[in-house]
Each structure stands twice: as structure tokens, then as C-alpha cells.
Amino acid sequence: MFFFLILLEFSIQNTCTKNDFRDRSILRGHYKDVASDSNGGFMANARDIVFFNYGEFSSPFGNNIYSNQSDIYFGYGSCRRYQSMNVKFRQIYEINTIRIRFWDQATRIYYFKIFATYKEDSDEVQIYDGNAIGLVTINFSARLVSKIRIYSLGNNSPDHIQDGYTSIIKVQAYFFMPSEKWKQMI
């Protein structure tokens, strides 16, 4: 009888742990890019953004970020200084990492802020204020998010000093878990 109770307790604890892991995995988008268009991510203010290239190649959420069309080698979305790109997710996800690839054919330094929103009627929380060249990975404490807003503060390009466009090739948002944590959970 005693052995049976110990076995039952172990079975219940193990089942709860597996269910908890499964539920967290769903909430974290199965640890994949939740901003990807294949996962339902989209630009909520797409009519305010200028997109370069054609069709799927112009989306900063696609997986095909480079194309072989004539003179345009990549697609990207662009907005002016003091405008925003609003990235909306299919549902609320728990994320802790945002990765952005800026248009980097020139050595532009992009200045920007990133805000996260839990629900439409909730307040935005600023999670980043800084600058970047090329690719930037922003890590922050895990939070539930339904939308991120990339607010452009311009760039240092001498060609665009008046308007300071922010041009983004790729946006990714996901929950990053270091490998040592994975080992503990398995």
C-alpha cells in the first residue's frame, strides 16, 4: 500500500510538470518567432509604412528576406522619424527577446525605442531606448505581449538627415531559453 501511494504521488507530480511545460510552451509560442507571418504576425499600421520590393519579399515578418529580382536584393519596411511600426501578434504571447535586422547597406546608426503592450486597452511599457547598426538582439524580462511598437528616432545617414527613415528588413519576437534551462526541464 505504501509503495502504491508513493508511485501515485510521483505520477501526479510528473503529470503536472509535463502539463505545466506544455502550457508554458503554448504561451511562449513553442519557442518560435511569434512575429513571423507564418505565425500570424502582421504590421498593424501597414498603410502608414512604405514597403520596398514585391509581395512576400517586402514583409519584415517573412522568412525569405532576400530575393534575386533585378536591382532590389531585399525587401524592407520603412517609416519616417517620429513614426512607428506596430507589430501585432495573433494572440498574447510570453516573450523575452526581440531581434531586429535594420537595412545595413550603408553604415547607418538607427535610433529607436521599443514599447510592449499586453492588451489593446493596457498601457505601453518601454523595453528599449537606444541605437543599433545592422542586427540588434534585445533581451528583457519575460512579459505577456500582444503588440510591440518600434518608434523611430531617425538615423545618422547624410542622405536622409532631414527625415531620418528607419528601414527594417526583419523583425523577430520570441521567448529565449538558455540550453541549461532546457536540460533541467527534460
Give a verbal description of the structure.
The model is unreliable at 2-16 (pLDDT under 50). The relative contact order is 0.20. The protein has 186 residues and is an alpha+beta fold. The protein has helices at 2-27, 179-185, and strands at residues 42-43, 50-52, 66-69, 72-74, 76-79, 84-102, 110-117, 124-132, 135-155, 166-174. It has two helices and ten strands. The protein folds into two domains: 1-29; 32-178, Jelly Rolls (Sandwich), CATH 2.60.120. The strands form two sheets. Strands 1, 2, 5, 6, 7, 8, 9 and 10 form an eight-stranded antiparallel beta sheet that branches. Keywords: Signal. Residues 1-17 form the signal peptide.
Key attributes of the depicted protein:
alpha+beta; 2 domains; globular; 2 helices; 186 residues; signal; disordered N terminus; eight-stranded antiparallel β-sheet; 10 strands
